[in-house]
Amino acid sequence: MEARRTLALVLLVGVIWSQLQFGAEAAGTTVFTLSNNCTYTVWPATLSGNSAVAVGGGGFELSPGATVSFPAPAGWSGRLWARTNCVPETSGASLSCATGDCGGAVRCSLGGAPPVTLAEFTLGGADGKDFYDVSLVDGYNVGIGVAATGARVNLSTCGYAGCVGDVNALCPAELQVAGKGGEQSGMATTTVACRSACEAFGTAEYCCTGEHGGPDSCRPTRYSRLFKAACPAAYSYAYDDPTSTFTCGAGAQYLITFCPAQQQ
């Protein structure tokens, strides 16, 4: 019941902020709009990197086709992700998810357990610009797309970050995480996530540590190339910066879509 009340509150906040988005842009506030284009329910989660502010309440339920909007304070940095195949406890106090789980909490104060696809933001960074990316460094569980919107910036200079390809369908056997698919596959056993090579093998070559701890010594591997081929606009390994980090002028708003491939 508590989880449902939380969802209702977040949805109400989303409606209010959607209606006031123009005013938010005028005031310089950043609004994140999350849209679930998947055929199954996801539980988005957020984690702040530089602030005690839990944007979006830290986590909530998002049904197929649903959209929620919420604000982020100036200078906010952090990450967003989707949890999948989640089962709320009867009391609503905890949540067990097959992927992206944050210690069983509904509202996250910990990062999502890998493998998980991440959308990462730094608002108002160098030269006042926003920096954002979608990362597969911690593996992949669901596709995410990030598009800048709004009237106060030149959107032609703001790139689309994201992972449109279905990495789970391409995942090598040694990286696959199998589980019950739930809404995704009618409870059949399926690949619910794809681990990074670092998580799977733990070697310096794949983790960019030790003698491979720099951009010159940590190079793409056959696994990161597979991720990059599926998702050219996402981080495939730690030093995949040139084609994976995007910037946008201050005042941009952001649409974050789960399962963006199904839009195309």
From TrEMBL:
Signal sequence bounds: 1-26
Transmembrane stretches, start-end: none
Disulfide bonds: C38-C259, C86-C97, C102-C108, C158-C248, C163-C231, C171-C194, C198-C207, C208-C218
Pfam families, alphabetized: Thaumatin (PF00314)
Gene3D superfamilies referenced in this protein's UniProt entry, alphabetically: Thaumatin
Sorted UniProt keywords: Disulfide bond, Signal
Domain of life, per lineage: Eukaryota
SMART domains: THN
Name this polypeptide is given: Thaumatin-like protein
Organism of provenance: Oryza meyeriana var. granulata
